[in-house]
Specification:
Elements (H helix, E strand, L loop, with lengths): L13 H8 L12 H6 L3 H17 L4 H14 L3 H13 L4 H9 L8 H16 L4 H8 L4 H24 L12
Helix pairs in contact: 3-9, 4-5, 4-6, 4-7, 4-9, 7-8
């Protein structure tokens, strides 16, 4: 979409301004990221979703690199340029190489992945395609991940599917300085 169906809020309510002041929702220039400014049309929803989203991003028991690989794959599978582009920036900060970002586009069958990384991406694909992680993929991940990490993986993938659905349906535009790299 070239134009948003729901444009970002430009004059946020005091409740939304209070959420913005908590941090983590702005671009380098201090303006709110388009995703948050779009959801700001529904301040109560934004407030409650942020609690969950904050867990996924900052209290997640998965290694940050793994979390970002999974989120990038969700962006690919959901054809969400905003999600993918925003998380390319975050993934690079978490040690994901540009080559690995390119490999995410190909998926778990890319020959450069370790067996674990391939299973991680396969879990995203299986959830996307079938609504569940298959037994072989589950076993490969559970060999390294705790039960808590397995749950965080499922909720991370679920959250970013939800986010991608919102971004794509609302036509949220890329933020200033973020290139469409999907």
């Amino acid at each position: 979409m070239d134009t948003p169906r729901i444009p970002p809020v430009t004059n946020p309510s005091p409740e939304v301004l209070e959420l913005y002041e908590r941090g983590g929702m702005t671009a380098p220039d201090g303006s709110p990221l388009n995703i948050f400014a779009t959801i700001a049309h529904h301040p109560k929803l934004l407030k409650r979703w942020l609690v969950f989203a904050a867990h996924v991003m900052s209290k997640n028991s998965m290694p940050a690199r793994d979390r970002e690989l999974a989120i990038l794959r969700v962006g690919v599978r959901c054809a969400s340029p905003y999600e993918f582009a925003q998380h390319v920036v975050i993934a690079e900060q978490c040690g994901v190489s540009r080559a690995e970002i390119d490999q995410v586009r190909v998926g778990p069958e890319h020959p450069a992945w370790t067996p674990f990384d391939a299973a991680l991406l396969a879990a995203v694909d299986e959830l996307h395609d079938h609504g569940r992680v298959g037994d072989a993929t589950w076993a490969a991940l559970a060999a390294r991940y705790s039960t808590e990490q397995m749950l965080d993986l499922l909720f991370t993938v679920g959250n970013y599917h939800l986010v991608s659905f919102v971004l794509n349906s609302c036509g949220v535009q890329l933020d200033e300085g973020i290139d469409d790299v999907l």
